[in-house]
């Protein structure tokens, strides 16, 4: 057997242990290859994953502890990918959660093989992605920005944003609007009016 | 108590006799009952010095310092308090349960054993065995939702008596049927376009229901078109789908949303005027996703067509200016707007401006009432002073009173009230014209920004084109995949205005703006005593002056101060001369006008949505006009009439013929009756343990020393009650030495988790936390997110900042994702996973989060109880958290090295901060100074760019922010 295997840096490395795992069938968006590694999957230099099916955990409750211990301190992001494939989840999931939490693993739950595969793919694809997408940075055009800002207020939808924009012309105008002007708008009921008004006119922080 | 009606007196007596829950029909004035109970309490506790003084209960809110609250608890005998504050103060011993005489719980239908109210009652009952608990609700149907809801509520409240007061109860019936009100029912026909729209909406609802039926996920056997028109229909559908929500295709979800949209549309058709309805439709179209099912149906086309027809029609443009001047036009109003668009002729807009049919009716009624009042005044005057028999004197007095009492006009919405006020004091066409002018000018303003290209909308026609392209991009409607894109684009284009029509509307708007500007100029010129300049210099927006303009002028040339009736509007829409005279002028007189308009003399308005239930008693009207009807309000009328004795009350009830208004009203009555019958039945065979048993259990837990903070450890030899074990499911017997302390952010008391934690024998310490929601130990900190919170806070970037802060201050930062027990346990719908990596799914964002915060741990919790168990086991080998230390974490340190604000209490407007952080130019570095300097978002809107630059420390960011704030919102149509 070839001992010196070519390692593709763009592939998810998969441990031989995972052979026959149906999850592999669904890994289509990134390359993957079998190699000798300690974790089950390695999605980057600093990212690895252990795979655990809850059903298996019910059979061998100590398995996962042993696997985590084997990892030692080698990776920065250690994912415990848990396939939720039992109906009564509370008890086993609590055990798995505790195992992950007390042993420095990030627990990710997935409900199907497709979803498991998607998580592994995404970890690989996002290996060096900046955090912009979760920092509230939105598209640059005016309407998406206005929508992003105003829909922060609970219950306000896209149609309402257009109604508000149309009625008060500018974002500043919307912020200045008083109760009466707001309640004169079509489709915006008293609850939304109150919420909008509170958001714009109540101080950011009121020290008592 | 002298003025209580017989049945109200019985209600009070019942509730005074014993602790209990009182459920009454909507509109039977629960406020009255609550007021009497509170008054009795106040009177009883008066000391000698307060005799004869009217005491009022004090309101306790979160905007009050803790010390001030303690002082109030000490001195006041009766307080209104929010549940959150009550729970926090009971837990911190600021308020001690044994010092409370009793609790009066309003809106009892919201109580569960996990809700704030339930928590508060439990804490109260633990420390107080003798006090009373009385609960009131006027929403019987809330008790019909869910399995044995009634029993659960009563158990949570620790009450065993149930008092039911339906409208058909004998005492209520006797009292209210004694003096029936004089009701005049008026049925108004809808106009033909309204009927057409109404029918189309019904067709679309039908289409949506058929879709649902095909999805096989829902039991549609008893769905009917009529039922779709009720608000509760949404709830039924949602309830059926909730547990399988993750297996539902996006298309079915869309259908469920569409059903709701269509239902509100049917409501709005009856209460919005034609122009507002059209612009609402246009906003809806721009906001609706391309996956929408209804929008692409033939019937939707009809809705848009007819809605437009109520406002304007298109005709071929006149060939020469001369024809226009003569006012003679070739009226070739095309049947189909699309046809007009395809022909090569330029088109022109002709307003049709159909007023709302009910307006005319309201006008007539008010006219009639005013005449009646005049007549009564005359009668009174004739009789007065003359030597007449006693009874005539009394009659005169009564007539005078009736005539002088106000007229109350009742409508569902605030905006309807504002509009009716307008309608009553001016001509209908003038009102419509004003609305139409605003509609056109909005278009013009939006166009200007688009033209500047500043906001990315591109110039001119590309706005419309852009939206078509966008319409296509979504693709995949009905699972057709990307091949459907072009077809979608075509369909999308069909229901949008064609460019020619858009152009015509813009021309119209420009002409309007020009004439307004010319008018203003002329007025200025006249004031200066100079000659009139030629118009046409009009470039300004002319918005302020156009607002009050009662007529429309096609060109800038027309002499400003002379009316040219019908120069463009056509004969049928030409307003009456009187209307013009009243409305002409550059500014509409305001307050003054309202005072002298004879129609508005003594007329008052009430919006049902304002929920000001005391309005009848405050206003004391003798005439009531119900523009929209509502079961609760009719009941209030009955109670009000019964309290008035013989003084006459006349009620006009307006409704549209053959619309769902009447059906909805009748169905609401029937539903209530059914619910009450069910409640009475379940009262008969309800099984609840003896109250003593429940309380004994509670106190047994207390003696265990596991519930009350500050109570010493379990008393040795005390065996916990057998039930206490079953309640914990027989598992995890808490050991007395186990750490149990949890520091919880006070804002978290809005949710149910603290209540459950407390039920599960944790010691909950409320503190205002800057970082995290729950602190389990000096090392562990938890941020709780429900699924919808999670989605929202990924979008706003809030979660990123929270994770950052937690990682900075704690060794083990934890994100708790909380699923609801009765909803599906899954992050994604199966259909959402798709074939590619999609950066918009929750999963992808979670991956990104965990890559950026490798130390962040995630808890996936199936239910509140699972969370509580997990919290306990995580704490097992950890130290107890320190509340004081946790409170200081993340609080910015001031210049003196001490925490800024000195740890003082404050109320934070989270929503406003979220909005602020999403504004362009605002960054992590400058949002705190901005908050401090601006005060509020409204304050921010006023700051000039120089000031902003000073605060933000950057000219560029300041300019970016100010420009964005002042950019005119483009409208996609």
Detailed description of the structure:
Chain B: Residues 741-821 form the ERCC4 domain. Chain B: Keywords: DNA damage, DNA repair, DNA-binding, Endonuclease, Hydrolase, Nuclease, Nucleus. Chain B: It comes from Coccomyxa subellipsoidea. The complex is a heterodimer of chains A (208) and B (973). Chain A has 208 residues and is an alpha/beta fold. Chain A has nine helices and seven strands. Chain A has helices at 54-59, 63-71, 90-102, 113-125, 142-150, 158-168, 171-176, 179-183, 190-201, and strands at 11-15, 31-35, 41-42, 47-53, 77-83, 106-110, 205-207. Chain A has a six-stranded mixed sheet, sandwiched between helices. In chain A, a hairpin with a 4-residue loop joins β3 and β4. The mean pLDDT of chain A is 89. Chain B has 973 residues and is of the alpha/beta class. Helices cover 51% and strands 10% of the residues of chain B. In chain B, the strands form five sheets. A six-stranded mixed sheet of chain B has the order 15-14-16-17-18-19. In chain B, β12 (623-626), α27 (631-644) and β13 form a beta-alpha-beta unit. At the A-B interface, β5, α3, β6, α4 and α5 of A face α12, α18, α19, α32 and α33 of B.
């Amino acid at each position: 057997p070839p001992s010196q295997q070519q390692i593709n840096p763009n592939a998810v490395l998969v441990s031989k242990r995972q052979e026959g795992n149906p999850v592999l069938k669904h890994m289509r968006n990134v390359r993957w290859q079998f190699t000798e590694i300690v974790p089950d999957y390695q999605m980057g230099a600093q990212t690895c994953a252990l795979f655990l099916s809850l059903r298996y955990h019910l059979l061998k409750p100590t398995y996962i502890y042993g696997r985590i211990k084997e990892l030692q301190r080698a990776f920065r992001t250690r994912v415990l990918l848990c396939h939720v494939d039992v109906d009564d989840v509370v008890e086993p999931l609590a055990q798995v959660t505790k195992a992950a939490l007390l042993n420095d693993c990030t627990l990710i739950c997935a409900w199907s093989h497709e979803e498991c595969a998607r998580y592994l793919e995404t970890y690989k694809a996002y290996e060096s992605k900046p955090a912009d997408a979760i920092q509230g940075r939105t598209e640059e055009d005016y309407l998406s920005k206005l929508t992003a800002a105003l829909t922060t207020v609970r219950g306000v939808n896209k149609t309402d944003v257009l109604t508000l924009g149309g009625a008060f012309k500018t974002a500043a105008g919307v912020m200045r609007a008083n109760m009466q002007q707001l309640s004169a708008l079509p489709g915006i009921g008293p609850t939304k009016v109150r919420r909008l008004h509170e958001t714009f006119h109540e101080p950011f922080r009121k020290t008592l | 108590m002298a003025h209580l009606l017989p049945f109200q007196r019985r209600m009070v007596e019942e509730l005074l006799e014993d602790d209990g829950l009182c459920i009454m029909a909507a509109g039977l004035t629960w406020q009255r009952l609550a007021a009497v109970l509170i008054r009795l309490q106040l009177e009883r506790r008066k000391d000698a010095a307060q005799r004869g003084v009217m005491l009022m209960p004090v309101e306790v809110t979160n905007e009050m310092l803790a010390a001030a609250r303690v002082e109030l608890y000490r001195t006041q005998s009766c307080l209104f308090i929010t549940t959150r504050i009550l729970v926090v103060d009971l837990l911190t011993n600021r308020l001690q349960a044994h010092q409370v005489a009793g609790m009066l719980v309003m809106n009892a239908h919201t109580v569960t054993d996990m809700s704030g109210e339930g928590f508060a009652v439990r804490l109260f009952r633990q420390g107080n065995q003798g006090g009373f608990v009385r609960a009131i609700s006027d929403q019987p149907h809330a008790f019909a939702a869910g399995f044995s809801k009634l029993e659960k509520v009563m158990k949570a409240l620790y009450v065993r008596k149930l008092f039911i007061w339906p409208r058909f109860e004998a005492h209520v019936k006797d009292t209210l049927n004694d003096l029936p009100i004089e009701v005049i029912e008026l049925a108004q026909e809808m106009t033909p376009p309204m009927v057409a729209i109404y029918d189309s909406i019904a067709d679309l609802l039908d289409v949506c229901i058929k879709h649902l039926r095909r999805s096989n996920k829902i039991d549609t056997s008893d769905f009917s078109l009529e039922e779709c028109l009720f608000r509760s229909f949404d709830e039924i559908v949602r309830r059926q789908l909730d547990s399988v929500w993750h297996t539902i295709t996006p298309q079915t979800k869309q259908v469920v949303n569409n059903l709701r949209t269509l239902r509100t549309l049917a409501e709005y058709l009856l209460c919005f005027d034609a122009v507002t309805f059209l612009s609402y439709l246009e906003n809806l179209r721009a906001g609706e996703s391309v996956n929408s099912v209804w929008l692409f149906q033939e019937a939707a086309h009809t809705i848009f067509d007819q809605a437009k027809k109520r406002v304007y029609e298109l005709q071929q443009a006149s060939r020469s200016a001369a024809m226009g001047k003569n006012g003679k036009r070739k009226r070739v109003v095309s049947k189909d707007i699309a046809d007009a668009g395809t022909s090569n002729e330029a088109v022109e807009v002709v307003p049709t401006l159909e007023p709302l049919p009910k307006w005319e009716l309201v006008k007539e009624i008010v006219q009639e009432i005013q005449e009646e009042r005049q007549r009564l005044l005359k009668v009174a005057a004739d009789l007065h002073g003359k030597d007449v028999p006693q009874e005539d004197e009394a009659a005169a007095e009564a007539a005078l009173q009736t005539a002088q009492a106000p007229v109350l006009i009742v409508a569902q919405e605030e905006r309807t009230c504002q509009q009716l006020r307008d309608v009553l004091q001016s001509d209908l066409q003038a009102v419509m014209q004003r609305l139409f002018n605003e509609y056109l000018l909005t278009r013009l303003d939006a166009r200007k920004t688009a033209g500047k290209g500043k906001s990315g909308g591109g110039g001119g026609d590309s706005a419309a084109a852009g939206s078509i392209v966008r319409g296509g991009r979504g693709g995949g409607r009905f699972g057709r995949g990307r091949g459907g894109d072009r077809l979608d684009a075509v369909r999308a284009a069909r229901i949008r205005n064609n460019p020619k029509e858009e152009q015509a509307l813009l021309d119209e708007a420009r002409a309007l703006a020009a004439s307004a500007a010319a008018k203003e100029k002329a007025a200025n010129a006249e004031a200066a005593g100079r000659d009139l300049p030629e118009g046409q210099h009009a470039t300004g927006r002319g918005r302020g002056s156009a607002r009050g303009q009662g007529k429309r002028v096609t060109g800038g040339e027309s002499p400003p101060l002379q009316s040219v009736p019908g120069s463009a509007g056509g004969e049928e829409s030409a307003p009456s001369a009187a209307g013009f005279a009243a409305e002409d002028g550059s500014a509409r007189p305001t307050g003054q006008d309202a005072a002298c308009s004879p129609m508005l003399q003594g007329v008052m308005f009430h919006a049902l949505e304002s929920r000001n239930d005391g309005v009848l008693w405050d206003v004391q009207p003798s005439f009531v006009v119900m523009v929209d009807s509502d079961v609760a309000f009719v009941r209030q009328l009955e109670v009000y009439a019964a309290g008035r004795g013989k003084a006459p009350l006349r009620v006009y009830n307006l409704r549209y013929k053959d619309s769902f208004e009447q059906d909805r009203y009748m169905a609401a009555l029937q539903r209530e009756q059914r619910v009450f019958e069910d409640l009475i039945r379940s009262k008969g065979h309800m099984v609840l343990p003896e109250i003593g048993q429940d309380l004994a259990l509670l106190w047994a837990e207390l003696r265990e020393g596991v519930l009350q903070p500050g109570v010493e450890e379990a008393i040795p030899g005390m065996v916990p009650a057998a039930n206490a074990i079953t309640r914990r499911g027989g598992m995890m017997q808490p050991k007395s030495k186990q750490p149990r302390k949890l520091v919880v952010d006070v804002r978290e008391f809005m949710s149910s988790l603290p209540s459950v934690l407390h039920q599960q024998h944790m010691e909950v310490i409320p503190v205002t936390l800057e970082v995290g929601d729950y602190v389990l130990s000096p090392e562990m900190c938890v941020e709780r997110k429900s699924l919808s919170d999670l989605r929202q806070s990924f979008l706003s970037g809030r979660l990123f900042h929270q994770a950052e802060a937690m990682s900075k201050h704690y060794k083990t930062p934890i994100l708790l994702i909380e699923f609801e027990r009765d909803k599906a346990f899954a992050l994604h719908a199966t259909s959402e996973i798709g074939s590619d990596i999609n950066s918009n799914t929750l999963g992808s964002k979670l991956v990104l989060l965990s890559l950026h915060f490798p130390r962040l741990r995630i808890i996936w919790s199936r239910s509140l109880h699972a969370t509580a168990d997990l919290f306990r086991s995580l704490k097992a080998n950890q130290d107890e958290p320190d509340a004081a230390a946790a409170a200081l974490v993340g609080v910015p340190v001031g210049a003196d090295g001490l925490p800024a604000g000195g740890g003082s209490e404050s109320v934070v407007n989270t929503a406003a901060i979220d909005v602020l952080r999403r504004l362009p130019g605002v960054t992590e570095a400058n949002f705190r100074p901005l908050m401090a300097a601006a005060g509020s978002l409204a304050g921010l809107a006023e700051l000039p760019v120089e000031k902003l630059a000073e605060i933000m420390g950057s000219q560029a960011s300041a300019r970016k922010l100010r420009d964005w704030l002042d950019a005119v919102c483009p409208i996609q149509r």
